[in-house]
Specification:
CATH topology of the largest domain: Immunoglobulin-like
Number of domains: 2
Strand order of the largest sheet: 2-8-7-4-5
Number of strands: 8
CATH architecture of the largest domain: Sandwich
Largest sheet: 5 strands, mixed
Oligomer: single chain
């Protein structure tokens, strides 16, 4: 005697059994689909951790007291580190650091997180550089998540370091 399994279409699987069984199956299917969609969105947010990074300065010529603004928007799923540095040739010095914390229950919480810093250039900081062209660089780095390390997001702006007393 040979036994074969009969293949039933999905609609008969959902409609078979008592009324209670059908309701439980439909509720389980709806819950599974909701979790799958939340999981897909969380996977995207783990892949793209830094949404935007903006770097603004008042003037391209850096003088003591001149402010700079760094604004970052993250996915809110993990920590993101932001660094602002001034680079002149092979000489680079960090001006400011910022760490943006994730949201609570990041898997379920789709809200973004924002952070800003507004450091000013001091006389002591600018004294470490020669007068002339330089690069102001803001870098936002996420953390490894689900076997993927995202590339850092970088914004650079050409600037001129002013001579002391100018």
């Amino acid at each position: 005697m040979v036994m074969t399994s009969a293949k039933r279409p999905f609609s008969s699987w959902m409609s078979g059994g008592s009324r209670l069984t059908r309701v439980v199956k439909r509720v389980a299917l709806i819950v599974a689909l909701l979790y799958a969609s939340v999981g897909a969105w969380a996977a995207y947010r783990a892949w793209v951790q830094v949404r935007t990074l903006e770097l603004k300065i008042v003037s391209a010529t850096l003088r003591p007291g001149a402010p700079s603004l760094v604004h970052v928007v993250t996915s809110g799923l993990t920590y993101v580190d932001v660094r602002l540095e001034l680079v002149q040739g092979s000489h680079a010095v960090t001006l400011a650091d910022l760490r943006i914390a994730p949201t609570r229950n990041g898997f379920y919480n789709p809200r973004t997180r924002q952070g800003s810093m507004m450091p000013s250039f001091t006389t002591e900081f600018l004294a470490q550089f020669q007068p002339g062209p330089a690069i102001l660089r803001a870098t936002a780095s996420g953390v490894p998540k689900w076997l993927h390390t995202p590339a850092p997001v970088v914004q650079e702006m050409p600037v001129i370091v002013a001579a002391p007393g100018q």
